[in-house]
Specification:
Blueprint lengths: L9 E4 L3 E3 L3 E3 L13 E6 L6 E7 L4 E7 L2 E6 L5 E6 L4 E5 L4 E6 L4 E6 L8 E2 L2 H6 L4
Antiparallel strand pairs: 1-9, 2-3, 4-11, 5-10, 5-12, 6-9, 6-11, 7-8, 7-10
Bound molecules: thymidine-5'-diphosphate (TYD).
Length: 138
């Protein structure tokens, strides 16, 4: 587990098992992740002109995959640094620590799968951008 001070978003390349003749498989096991999975969800049938996200999390850590299609994930730190990540294959995961504002664009065929470190509670979300930016001074 990373210390809070070193927690940064990063792409993680997961191993691909199989071959082009029979197909491929990718595995995520807790022993190889920066947190223990408490929840899995997936998001799909998002029209191309829709931008999802617009929030950060107080404590949640996530690893996001585009298990189908392509997903453009923009992360902003509390200090205003923006990075765009392109998820374009099922074995590529994006690790997101707490306190990153995100916006998400989907290709029409995209399926986003998220491995999450906590179960869902709405109180755990920061949906007010000004409240998010105030974290910089804490
Ligand atoms: P949200 O995380 O805001 O979606 P996105 O980041 O893709 O825009 O979630 C959308 C809605 O679904 C919101 O009302 C909260 C609800 N939700 C749950 O009830 N349980 C969950 O595990 C998740 C992820 C969302």
């Amino acid at each position: 587990m990373d210390s809070l001070a070193t927690m940064q978003p990063r792409l993680i390349e997961f191993s691909q098992l199989g071959d082009p003749t029979t197909g491929f498989m990718t595995v995520a096991a807790n022993s190889a992740l920066p947190f223990c999975i408490q929840r899995v969800y997936w998001t799909y049938s998002v029209a191309e002109d829709v931008i999802r996200g617009h929030h950060a999390h107080r404590e949640l850590e996530q690893i996001i995959f585009a298990v189908a299609g392509t997903i453009e994930f923009t992360l902003e730190s509390v200090y205003g640094q923006q990075t765009i990540y392109h998820l374009n294959r099922p074995g590529l995961g994006l690790y997101i620590p707490r306190h990153y504002w995100r916006t998400i664009k989907f290709s029409p065929d995209a399926v986003l799968m998220c491995l999450a470190s906590l179960e869902y509670t709405e109180e755990e979300y920061i949906r007010d951008y000004d409240e998010f930016k105030r974290l910089a001074s804490k």
